[in-house]
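Support case: adenosine-5'-triphosphate complex. Customer-provided input:
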Amino acid sequence: MSDPILQLKGVKTDIAQYHILHGVSFDVPRGGVTMLLGRNGAGKTTTLRTIMGLWKPHAGEILLDGAPINGLNPAQIARRGIGFVPEDMGIFSDLSVEENIRLAALSGQPVAERLDWIFGAFPALRTFWKSPAGTLSGGQKQMLSVARAVVEDRELYLIDEPSKGLAPAIVATLARALKDLKNRGATILMVEQNFSLARALGDHVAVMDDGRIVWTGAMAALSADTALQERLMGLKMEHS
Ligand SMILES: Nc1ncnc2c1ncn2[C@@H]1O[C@H](COP(=O)(O)OP(=O)(O)OP(=O)(O)O)[C@@H](O)[C@H]1O
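Agent response - structure generated as follows:
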């Protein structure tokens, strides 16, 4: 694969006394969406948190644009150009939507064009601009979490299960926004258990099992091969 934006080489992460990642190696191609798939507990969230510097790997290397980022702290990694939408959304409930977004902008003031794009994708955030984030619905909180990551133009976004627990209409809104982000040239590495969403957005796939990568390839290849899906994940992709 030529010119990957991100490379993981033999990454091993322990959480307390537990060995969670046993040597994770894969490349994220520049441009498009790479889906990180696998059974519950396979290590997908731990992989995203390790890339972001929230867990420190005890072995291996993580390269962004060919330069090592393992060992940097999360703020330094964000400044290198990685945005993160965590599984728990990471928003400040007591602060307003506006304050949440301002805090996520490096200069404290979002670029007007970027804010217009966010309001176009998620009109509810304009409506509730002055409201405490804690009063938003679950779907609106997820929109705010995505908006916080995309308020800065970053070359890579890590997005952890954005559709979790959300109604289909909200998932469709998120899917449109993420597709638009991709069309603007961003690279996305995303964990997603909703296979119709994974298939609709994904270009490339890395499948994890028990703290290792067990398959990488094109989404089109995985999508066309139900036997492979069952072998890798014990699941059938939904056919919509
Ligand atoms: N803070 C923690 N303390 C102890 N064990 C943890 C912690 N976080 C994760 N683990 C364990 O690490 C393993 C991998 O978890 P991880 O959340 O990375 O998996 P996942 O593939 O994202 O799964 P899921 O889809 O269920 O979130 C699991 O066995 C989990 O129990």
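The CA atoms of residues 87 and 160 lie 5 Å apart.

Case will auto-close in a few days if no follow-up is received.
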